[in-house]
Amino acid sequence: MTFESLDLAEPLLRAVRASGYTQPTPIQLQAIPAILEGNDIMAAAQTGTGKTAGFTLPLLQQLRGKATVKSRQVRALVLTPTRELAAQVHDSVRTYGRYLPLRSAAVYGGVNINGQIRELRRGVDVLVATPGRLLDLWQQKAVNFDGIEILVLDEADRMLDMGFIHDIKKIMAMLPAQRQNLMFSATFSDGIRQLAKRITNNPREIDVAPRNSSIETVTQIIHPVDKGRKPALLSHLVRTRNWYQVLVFSRTKHGADKLVKKLARDNIRAEAIHGNKSQSQRTRTLAGFKKNSFQVLVATDIASRGIDIDNLDHVVNYDLPHVPEDYVHRIGRTGRAGASGRAVSLVCADESQQLRDIERLIKCSIERETVDGFAPQQSLPDRPAGMKTGQRTSKKSQGGKYRTRNGGGYSGKPKNPGGGRRKSGRRGPSPAAA
Fold first, then answer.
1. Disulfide engineering: 164 pairs with which of 70, 159, 260, 360, CB 3.0-4.6 Å?
2. 215 by DSSP, 3-state: which?
3. What's the pLDDT tens digit per position in 386-421?
4. Would residue 434 count as lying in a domain?
5. How many domains does the structure of the chain reveal?
C-alpha cells in the first residue's frame, strides 16, 4: 500500500513525497485510518517502527482548514518524556506540515523559558512538550488548554518509569473533557492499561510490538567479562573491529562520563549524553554523532529517548538494564526499518539476574561468546534449557558485513564519513524511522 491509499490530504502527501517515502509502515497503516475516523487509540510500537509519523500525519490532517488559533491557545498537545524526543517530534510536525498554514512549537526544560513564553503568546496549533516545562508555562499563564482537541502521549511507558504520572494527572485535570486521545507505548503493561483507562474513551488497540518479542532484524550476542575489564573490552572491540557510530548504554551518568575518558585515553573519540548535560550540549553531541564526528556515543536510557539515527549498526549494553523491557528499547535503536543490526552486551557475573530476566522476557536465549584475552574469572549462568537460541546467522547491512561466531563485527569504514549513511534525496525525519 501507499500513503495515497490512506486518504491523506494532498499537502501532507506532497510533504511525504518530498521526504522520499511512498510506503507506510505497519503502525502507520493501522493508526492513520483509526485516528482519521476520530477514534481514541492505544498503540504499542517499538522505536523505529514509524510511530511518530503514524500520529503526526493524521493529527495535522485533523487540524487543517480550521479557524486560526487564538493567543496562548493550543489545539493539539503532544506530551513526551524527554527533551530529545520533544525536539524529534516537533521536527516531524514541521516536516509533514510544511505545506499547511499551521503553527507549532516545542517546549522543554534546559533552555530559557522566556523565548517559549513569547512563542506561545501568539497561540499554536500543535504544541510538543515535556510535562514539567508545560506545567511551569501554565503556572505563568503562558498557555491555555481550553481549545485542545487532540492529546497525544508518546512513549507513555517511559513517562511512567520517569515518575511523570502526577504531572500527567495534573495536566489531564485541566484539559477539555471532549477531545481525541492517542496513546503510544512500547508495551501494554498493567501500568499502561491503568493509565489508558484514565485518559482514553473506548480506545482502539493497535499492537505492532508484542510485549515478549525482540527485534528480529537484530543479531544479539553476549560477551562474558569481569566487571573491572569492561572498559578494556569495549575499547578492544571498537578498535579491532573498526566500529563506527556505536551507541553504548551506561546505567549511570557518572559511569558514562568515566567511560568516555577511558576511551579517549585509548584514542577513541567518544562523547556522553545524559541528564546533567545542558540542552545545547546534548543537541551538539547528537548532531556530531549523526555526522560521524566521533565513533562512540555513551548514553543513559533516559537521555537516549529521541535519538533518531538511520543505519545505526551497533548498540552496546555496557551495563545491563534493571528493567528488562529497557533492553528491548535499547536494541531497537539498531535494526530499524527492516535493516540489519547488532546488539552486543558486556555482561559480568553480577548481572546474572538481569540477564535471566531479559531472556525470560524475549523468550530467547542469547548466545555467549568469550573474546580471547577477556575470559572472566566468574562464569555466567548457562543459557535457559528448552529456550530457543538467538539468531547467529550471517547478516549483511548497509555499509558492512557481519560474520558468525568468532568474527562478529562490522568491517570497513562508513561509506560517507562526513555525513553518515543516509540515502541521498531524503530530507527531514523519515516516516519509517520517526
1. 159
2. coil
3. 565 554 333 332 223 323 223 333 233 333 333 333
4. no
5. 2
